[in-house]
Amino acid sequence: MYKVFGSSHSGNSYKLRLLLSQLQIPHAWQEVDILQGATRTPEFLAMNPNGKVPLLQVEPGRYLPESNAILCYLAEGTPLWPADRWGRADTLHWMFFEQYSHEPYIAVARFVMKFLPADHPRRAEVPNLHERGYKALGVMEQHLSAHPFFAGDAYSIADIALFAYTHVAGDGGFELGRYPAVAAWIGRVAAQPRFIPLEYH
Amino acid sequence: MYKVFGSSHSGNSYKLRLLLSQLQIPHAWQEVDILQGATRTPEFLAMNPNGKVPLLQVEPGRYLPESNAILCYLAEGTPLWPADRWGRADTLHWMFFEQYSHEPYIAVARFVMKFLPADHPRRAEVPNLHERGYKALGVMEQHLSAHPFFAGDAYSIADIALFAYTHVAGDGGFELGRYPAVAAWIGRVAAQPRFIPLEYH
């Protein structure tokens, strides 16, 4: 059985929780307390030298890091990871967009505003995070104004990857009301079978 | 015939040049002057709303952004993109590592030190870029101390993705001499058939 090392507060870990729920894949969940340095222990670094969650234990001694690589691995052979060459490439395009142009701003703004004290010096990063994050939301809005989902006009792991931090962007001070197509897409994702929200406990 | 919109100075664009050379794929190259704002014109944004190169024109009106997604698309069906499920997932793991934990530090340090004036205010970012970039090089060194290449112990698009900015990390002030396994891997990549360097003109 798969074992997932993850944090229940992390959007990157939530991507896996959502996919595992939707595909009804049995797994064990090992909660990792990032804020207490649990990804920096020798034991954890032996599993993932980059010191990050989520991490998938495929079998004892075989580990897969990187949330979006794990999504691809778990969704292989299902309708959530397109079988055709163009569909896979377009799915990956949005997943790389998420990790490079979206997560470093939208997820980090949420971290700073939700998990750090109000007088923390990292609050100074917020205006730049908002500028870059709104740019990513603008790219998403433009796409979603003409398409119901991100890749191949059907729900896929590209939507899961982008949904994770987008639907809680308000935690980081983003005003999603400015993006009606994004808001409508959030509703479509939340209406998928076996959907679970990020904050469920 | 494929058309690539790219910048000859960019490591992300170089990934495509290297793969296209190694797979001997005919293509047209359209040079895009990033520093002069050529990715911000209405014409370019109509092709890629995220305003970045490289961009692959698969056919007129059909465009694929994100360097690593393009590598996957072009390498489909070749030995450079593993055919088995685990091999693909492990390749993607290193490609997402490259875009999230490596490129934002190693490529950006190179940009600041090579392309901006010595008194530019962004020089203040260099110490942080070095700290994070050296962490990525440490993860690579650990892996390469036990494996000849990144995924499946054979040369793949994961190596191309990581090679692009690693082999010119010295431009950004990184001392690669501290990482003998990385240096040896650079030599192995440069010895591959139909290899071409980044700066060739």
Summarize the structure in words.
The structure is a homodimer of 201-residue chains. The first copy, chain A, has 201 residues and is of the alpha+beta class. Chain A folds into two domains: 2-75, Glutaredoxin, CATH 3.40.30; 85-190, Glutathione S-transferase Yfyf (Class Pi), Chain A, domain 2, CATH 1.20.1050. Chain A has seven helices and four strands. Chain A has helices at 11-22, 42-47, 67-75, 85-115, 126-144, 157-166, 180-190; strands at 2-6, 27-31, 55-59, 62-65. In chain A, a hairpin with a 2-residue loop joins strand 3 and strand 4. In chain A, helix 5 packs across helix 7 (180-190). The longest helix of chain A has 31 residues, at 85-115. The radius of gyration of chain A is 17 Å and the shape is globular. The two termini of chain A are 24 Å apart. The model of chain A has no long low-confidence stretch (mean pLDDT 96).
Structural class of chain A: alpha+beta
Query: Roughly what is the average pLDDT of chain A, rounded to an integer?
Result: 96
**Major sheet summary line of chain A:** 4 strands, mixed
Overall, the morphology of chain A is globular
What is the chain-wise order of helices and strands of chain A?
Answer: EHEHEEHHHHH
> Can you count the helices of chain A?
7
Quaternary structure annotation: homodimer
CATH class wording of the largest domain in chain A: Mainly Alpha
